[in-house]
Structure formats: C-alpha cells, structure tokens
Amino acid sequence: MANNFFGITDIGKQRDNNEDTFIAQKTDDDNFIIACVIDGVGGYAGGEVAADIARECIVEQLSYIAGDIIPLLVNTVALANQRIYEKKQGNRQLENMACVLTLAVIDIPNNQFYYAHVGDTRLYLLRDNSLIKISKDHSFVGFLEDSGRLTEEAAMDHPKRNEISKALGFNPHISKEPNFVETGSSPFLPGDILLVCSDGLTDLVDKNQMTKILTSSGSIQDKGEKLIQAANSKGGKDNVTVVLVNNDKKPRQHSATRPATVANIPDEIIDPLAQPKLPDGPATIPVKQRSSRGTMVVLFILLALALAGFLWQFWLNYQLKQTPVKVAVKPVKVKNAGEIKLQDTINKLKGNTLIISEADYKQPIVLSDTLRIEQDSLYIKAKGNIIFKRDSAYNGPGISLTSNCKYIVLDSVAFDGFRVAIATRNDALVLKHVVFSNCVSPVQTAYIFPDKKYISGRLFGGMFKIDTLSKPTK
C-alpha cells in the first residue's frame, strides 16, 4: 500500500450486507491515482451488483490515462451506466438496481485532480486546515443544503435525506443528457488531502468532526480508520466507505527578500520638460541650404523605372493571352451509399455514443474516401460483424481523427487492406477488440506541439496490447 492514498469500507452497525465499494490504486503506468467511492442502490443483491459493475468498468477504462481527462471520465461513467442497465434488463430480480459514485483522478506530479460525480457520495478537499465540499448532492435535500436553505445539521436529520435525483442504471442514454455527470478539476497542492466518501459517513459525522480527524496527527490510514469509527460510534446506520489521497510533496518555501534601497537623488534635479541648453556662441546658427539639382535627378530615375515596369507587365499579359491554358480535370470520387450514410450519421450525432449494426450497413463497408471524426469525444461500438474495407482505387486513411478529438473509442470493428487504417493526433484514440488485416500501418499518430516551445514528456507506446480473449473478425 502506498503511503499517500488509502481506502476502506465497513458494513456499519445496522446493515446485513455492504453495497459500497471503492477504488484506491494507481493506474498501470503509475502516473495517476484513482480514488472512487461507489454506493449501490436497489435491495439486498442489486446494489452490490451495480456497484461491482461500475467498479470493474472504471478500473478497465482508466488502466491508462492520456489526453483530455474530463471527457475520459464522462465516457467511463456513461459506459458503466450502460453496462448496469443492460445487466438488469435480463434479470427481473435486479430491475431496481443502480448506484451512485464519485470518481477522482489525481495527477500528483502536476499538482492537479479531476473528478466526475453522480448522486450523493461526496468529494472534499482539505487545504490549510479548512475542509471544502467540492461535489454537489444530486438530491432535493442536498440542493437545499448547498444553496444555504438548510443548515448541515438540519439536512443530516431530514427525513428525505437519502432520496436521490440521479443514479447510474435507470436511464441508458445519460450521454444525451447535458450535465448529467458533474465534472470539474482543481489544483491539488502539496499538503492537500482529498476525501471521497459515501453518505454513510456524511449522514452521521459533521464537517467539523471530519476536519478534526483529517488535521490530527497520524498516517493517512489512521485518519481513514478514525472516520469509519466516528460513523459507527454514532449508530453506523449505513455502510461507510472512505478513500483518502494526500499530496505528500513538501510545500515550497520562498525566502523573504529585502526591499531594494532607494538610489541617492542627485542635488541637481533634471526637469524632463526643460529645453536643452545650447553651447555658448552666437544667438543664431547658420543653416546649410540643399541643392535642388540632386532631387530632380532622383525623380527622373524613378519615373523611368516606373515606365519600364509598366511596359514589361503589358508584354507579359499579352504573352499570357496568346498561350492556351491547360486545366487539369481531377477525377471525381464516387462514394457508395454505406460510407455516405455513416459519415452523415457521425456528422449529425448529438450524443457521444454511436452503435453500428450490421443490419443497417451492407458488409463490408467499402471506403473510397476518409471517414472524418471531428467530435471532442465519441464512442463507436459495433454490434455484429462490422468490417471497413479499402476501395481498390483509394490509398488514403480509413478513418481520420482531427485535432479537435480528445477521446475517441473504437470497439469491436475490423479494418482490411488499408495503407493507413486510422490516422489520429496526440493520444485521442482508444481501441477495444479491433482487428487489422493486411494493413501496412494500422495506426498512424501525429503529435501536435506549439511552435518554438520546449517540449518534455514521453510517448505512450505501451498502451496497446494484444487481446487473446477475443476472436478475430473474419
């Protein structure tokens, strides 16, 4: 276990099962810390199942993190929601299951954290002995508390405290609902502590007591265990889960500098508006008169050059009129109905999830031109056997991601016969179960950097792996 993050969950004093789960771990490349608390909803079995599905999805999707992080978190939460919804469609016993969660990704080297939130789990930031609530409760009582209409004490005792307005698993199309997932980012400075917790803690332990525990001496693990004990000492009415992350880098100390001394002011103060003193001599200075003959010579030369330029241009125009101009006729690309339909669907898509079914497209989808993706984030999922095949007369990329793209997922598609199957920029592309057949360059990546700036970093060349569990698409 690392010294700067810790997670713990407890069943509490009145429940028979624990519907909470959590994530407190580093990504596979050790560049980020994932801190997440998930609270299941929907009965004895359903809540646990929903929470476990969400946890598995988050760990899978965030094993490596690159590019724009906020769209990545939103897509991860949307995918978890979709998996929970699909799971309960086939099981009546789970039809009421759902979950709420707060997910934070912490970039310690760059002193920054990012978060995504749905429901009434919470995210707090401790800085300079002051505990700040970052997330907002998606409930009516939470709205009243956040807006100042209810005090913290009154909200904790409110009979409708746990009636939430948002959760994962009830609506399969949350990606089409703007602002369904609350997101944000903030500096995470040396000495700061992030607290992610379930309502089993905040329903019983107020902000003052949490602050005392977090500012007390002891390790991050000690503080997490004390928070659990505080909730259980007040009845432990619900499952209690806590994840803590500490930016344990030493704060920078800036040495004080003495103010610069004021330079001695000379006895004679110079007035900037005063006229300069002239040297002693006669009252008037003779001015040398210029000869006008040189000016006339210069004007004559300029007129001669202008006349010569005019005659030269006239002769060139005459020559161009006498020479026939050959216009090269560029062959017109004739696109097939399938690629026209798919490009039009991508261009007009309102959400960020596109399902491609083989029932809607003739297979294979032959490309005679590049499919362009310009969205900030997009999840393309194939249902059935979806193959993109290069037209014999076409030599360009199959799919091209523009510089606007930050997070594009291609899931369960195949490419056949392309010189470049996918052309992407920076780290926008994520592949899941994608097959490349007879492609010279499956993926071609261009990294875009600002002009004339010093660049540091590394390429994420190890992010892709061979998936031995999936069967190649024929």
UniProtKB/TrEMBL annotation:
Q: Which SUPFAM superfamilies match?
A: PP2C-like
Q: Where are the transmembrane segments?
A: 297-316
List the Pfam families hit by this protein, alphabetically: PP2C_2
Query: What are the PPM-type phosphatase domain coordinates in residue numbering?
Result: 5-247
Q: Which UniProt keywords apply?
A: Membrane, Transmembrane, Transmembrane helix
How is this protein named in the record?
Answer: Protein phosphatase 2C domain-containing protein
User: Origin organism of this chain?
Assistant: Mucilaginibacter sabulilitoris
